[in-house]
Amino acid sequence: MIKKIAVIGAGTMGHSIALNFSIYGYDVNLYDTNSTRIANVEEEIKDELEFLAEEEFIEPSEIMKALSNIHYFTDLQEAVMDRDYVIEAAPEILKLKQELFQKLDEFCLDHTILASNTSSLNLESMMALISNDRRKKMIVNHWYNPGHIMPIVELSFFGNMPEDIYLKVEHLYKSINKQCVKVLKDVPGLVANRIQQERYFLLSNKELLLQKI
Ligand SMILES: NC(=O)c1ccc[n+]([C@@H]2O[C@H](COP(=O)([O-])OP(=O)(O)OC[C@H]3O[C@@H](n4cnc5c(N)ncnc54)[C@H](O)[C@@H]3O)[C@@H](O)[C@H]2O)c1
């Protein structure tokens, strides 16, 4: 069962993912290479929790509980060494993610499942530098922005991961009230982003749009 989580990258998506898990009582380590970001992100998370309380999504008493569930790190090994599930939400640069997953493979426990929040990169290419054993424990979990409000998470099931491990991840997301979309093919953009791209493409190509109608 997944209990301890780490989120790698405390930017737009990472801080929001950490905040979402913290509301549901999960113990979350939030890591970023940028120490200024790590020093300031708690204030941003607090503001968002206060907004959720004002809008009656959570009780005011839950704000401090959620905040106490998140711990802040600038040392990657310390952030991930005892975690069950590690979500990468770092910049969308393939080489950066490959090298990050190589380090995570080295620093994490054998059972730890690694996840990427990538919007467009292939799982297969992101796994280039990790061990064969870890390949069975690596998934794309694609959140939508803002993560703590949007109800959908796309989960990859591309053949690298046994079903029992996939079901652990699905169970984790169901426990925080996310609707899981199981994606079976390793294509950039998974499902929802591809639909959006097709829509934008058609809207900017009126002749093609008329043909489709
Ligand atoms: N923004 C969105 O709407 C959105 C939606 C879904 C998925 N995504 C995906 O989520 C991921 C993160 O996107 P974002 O919008 O949160 O980016 P962001 O730029 O807001 O945040 C990235 C964070 O990662 C940190 N970082 C840089 N190098 C790092 C490293 N080596 N290790 C750890 N942290 C590092 C940065 O300091 C920054 O705080 C990307 O893969 C992106 O494609 C973004």
Please describe what this structure looks like.
It is a single chain. The protein is of the alpha/beta class and 213 residues long. The protein has a single domain, classed as 3-Layer(aba) Sandwich (Rossmann fold), CATH 3.40.50. The protein contains ten helices and eight strands. It has helices at residues 12-23, 35-54, 62-68, 76-80, 94-107, 123-126, 132-135, 163-175, 192-203, 206-212; strands at 4-8, 27-31, 70-73, 85-88, 113-116, 138-143, 152-156, 179-183. An eight-stranded mixed beta sheet has the order 3-2-1-4-5-6-7-8, sandwiched between helices. The longest helix has 20 residues, at 35-54. The N and C termini lie far apart (48 Å). The relative contact order is 0.13. The model has no long low-confidence stretch (mean pLDDT 94). Bound molecules: nicotinamide-adenine-dinucleotide.
Q: What's the helix-strand series?
A: EHEHHEHEHEHHEEHEHH
Averaging pLDDT over every residue, what do you get?
94
Low-confidence stretches: none
Overall shape: globular
CATH class: Alpha Beta
Individual helix count: 10
Provide the helix percentage: 40-55%
Radius of gyration: 18 Å
* Strand-pairing-aware structural class: alpha/beta
Cα separation of the termini: 48 Å
Strand content: 15-25%
CATH architecture: 3-Layer(aba) Sandwich
Please report the total strand number as a whole number: 8
Report on the biggest sheet.
8 strands, mixed
Bound molecules: nicotinamide-adenine-dinucleotide
State the domain count: 1
Q: CATH topology, which one?
A: Rossmann fold
The CATH H-level superfamily is NAD(P)-binding Rossmann-like Domain
Oligomer: single chain
Spatial strand arrangement across the major sheet: 3-2-1-4-5-6-7-8
